[in-house]
Specification:
26 helices, four-stranded mixed sheet, mainly alpha, 4% strand, two-stranded antiparallel ribbon, 678 residues, 6 strands
Amino acid sequence: MKSLGPHCIESKLLWTIALLAMATTAFATLFTTWAVYDDEGYILWTLIHHSQGSVLYENIYTQYGPAFYVLDVAFRNVIPLPYTTDGQRWQTLLFWLTSALLLFGSLRNLSRTNIRSLTTKSTTLFSVLVMGLLLWHQERLALEPGHPQIWCTLLVSLSIFLLTNRTSDSSHFPSWILISVLGLISGLLLMIKPNVGILFTAALPAIFLWSHKNVATWFRSIELIYTGCIVAIPWLLTHKQIDSISALVLPTLVTISLLGIRTTLIQSPQLVTIDRVRERQVLGKLCWLAATLVATVLFFVVWSAQRGISPLVLKQALFGQHGTLLQLYFFPAIRSSLGLSGLAVLAAFFAVHLGAKSKFFGTEFRQKSEIRTTDFLCKWNSIVSIPNETRLSIYLVLTTIVVACVMWLDSLNPLSHGLRPRGCAELLLALSPAIVCAWLSLRLNKGSDVKHLAVLATIACLQPLIAFPVPGTQLALGTLPLLLLLIDGCQLGIVHLTSQPYWADILERFPKRLAFYQRLTLFAAIIPTLLLTQRYCERNSLNLPGAFCLRLSADETTQTRELISTLQKQKADAIVFRWHNRPSWYLWAQCRPPFEQLPPSWTYLISDERQREQLKTLTKFQRVLVIDEAYEPRQIPPPSPLHEAWRRSQKLCEYGSEFSLLLWTPNKSVSSEKNRIE
């Protein structure tokens, strides 16, 4: 099959229209969405303070690594976008489209080994729909424009593109340049968002270790230990959250997928002659990967130290916030032994497997253990890797159609809160074991590079775990590699099915009907674009400083403008938020917050000591305007210094049932004469 791309499509006009429609869809989604938790405003303020010379973690409250801020400065030196609401959205749009193009380029690279091409019309339709799926699966970026996850998505997509941009010759290892780039990307991810970086780093050694067979015993032991660690990661990350049966789903599915990858690769006949290089070359490249990663991390540690940030402060900033969120938003674990029970089963399996090959046990025990282990692996392989290529093809094609239909129906609904995992993330996760193993089975039969298949499959299985500590947006973005594998498997399935006489006969008999269904499908795919464009045209421009392109509903626009107008006319010396921060309002009202330490959403996420420091700052003002929102956190936090002080606030006015303005006078009693806001 010819590679999926514009160069293999006869009608360039169709591709031009399709790309414009996709860009329009992303634009309309970005500029008609504003999340109530306003992460974009919080991140935007941290970027503004950083650009003005404030010290990260000391004067700027942020739980993201220094690499995010270094990369942002480098990006804005190339493309000088302003630090505004609109500027953040334009940056996200660029990253969104680039990530989709990189993933689509990865599909082109994977499809080079196909032996049969579809008709031009089928290829055109399939390519356009694939690009649309890859683009729309990232629609949750519209909830948090400018968030560090745009860099994470871009870097992961770039790494997948580099891994697939290889020939099918599996006798060579990745080049030193590729290893260096992967180490650099891994280090950047670690210093942007540790949860993403750790999982990505854990997946990389699979290039070398998961596909080895003809290696020395000691190296084989390293491979088995690494395999045990990699399948233990889901349980180690989730055992604190396992308080119900449904909470077992995520670690169980990911663990099954990882075991399926390893079993499928070990059973592959290609691995018999795949490793003809010296072991020291393998270890050398592993060491070079680790050295590049460590050098990247050390660079940002030194960069932070030069700006007065100690390693301990950096560590607390990167890992402390996630621990706080886990304690606040997830129920306490009933017992960690429940999560560790999965580890016990895996440990027993690998212990038997290793014991059967050791000299400690007798010959009879070793023979029986080898037979049982082999029988288990064969049965497992028969379950997860169906040998019938036609059945695999049908499964992957039908699964892709179901995912596309669910995604299409979901696109007709308004974008919801970030805690809801949209974009078929839950469905993809539930099907992940069968998808990954079926994809591997078809790909191995095509003679692809086993090492790169191993790392792609590992990334696809581990990435959903970046949903810690908050699911939703991160979960949807984390399943992007899994969606990539599904689409590629669907492509292979179509190629295989159309090569069968029965299916080829059907296609030749009904060319007109097939063309009709193609046009109908393409028209249905454009419906979300038309609806989103209509929504953009019907909504009103916010028309506030830095937010001229953002469009909201009539009620939201009116209420927001009135509130911002009130804030601009108020006589208060400082403006703060009681429960839920809206940092974007400071930008729109063109006023500065009273302190630089802005928490991401709720003020109680900062320590009591920091709150007392802020109270000292606020007591210098005579009149403090407190904006209260009818929004209750998922768990009411314990009393904090700020909220205890604000209980003495007096209500001034209300805006509907959502907002009310309070006046706090630190140096006056509650019984003083009421002040009014003009």
